[in-house]
Amino acid sequence: MTAWLIRIPMIAGVLAVATILVVALVINLGGGEDALPRETRGQTGQADDAAPTPEGAETEEVRPSPGGDVPEAEGVERRDPQDPLAVGAVDAPVMMVVFSDYQCPHCAQWNEETLPAMLEHAEAGDLRIEWRDMTFLGDGSERAALASYAAAKQDAFLEYHEQLFLDGQPRPESELSDAALVELAEELGLDGERFAADMASAEAASAIAENEQLASEAGVTGTPTVVIAGEQIAGAQPVEVYEDAFEAALGGGR
Prior knowledge:
Elements: H1 2-30, H2 73-76, E1 86-87, E2 94-101, H3 105-113, H4 115-123, E3 127-134, H5 139-152, H6 157-164, H7 178-187, H8 192-199, H9 202-217, E4 225-228, E5 231-234, H10 239-251
Parallel strand pairs: 2-3
Antiparallel strand pairs: 1-3, 2-4, 4-5
Helix pairs in contact: 5-6, 5-7, 5-8, 5-9, 7-8
């Protein structure tokens, strides 16, 4: 009887030690947020304000704060005299690169409200504008981008581009079939047969893929995104935002 009573505290002590070891093991394995490095806590699952809007979804005007240098900004600006998707002098003091999607309502808005003022600067020799057509919003976007490139091969990029965003609205999907896009080119006086061939060419497909790779490397996740002298402006901002960025770049000699 005495021996049994002596063993009870020993057993209790063993159980207590075992309990402590189990708790410590659970803490080390379970982790929770405390298991993450401090700098990574709370970063997972964040929504990207500049992400593209799915086709047919309701959209709101994007108002992120302008500014912030784009990674690899020098690679975003090409200044290639042979670039068919550009207007303005290749040696203009200020560069603007426009990442745009032909099915994006805010891109159409930007084209209607802001592009005319930017074209005035290009015509004055102070600004060069280069487009990087994206296909974030599906097959219609891709066909329109290929068609835009085909029009550019006949020196009609801007005219065709304007038609794709006529009256500040993207064309409906039904008007972006291959046949409809060729018909539009012919209405603008372009060679329809050549246009169709250029639209289906490996060159056009490669150019679009290259632009999308460039966007990925530059951290562009939505449209419109405009880069002026290395400064990224996302969303359809008021024209004054772009004017201010242009004037600052012009004054700074960029």
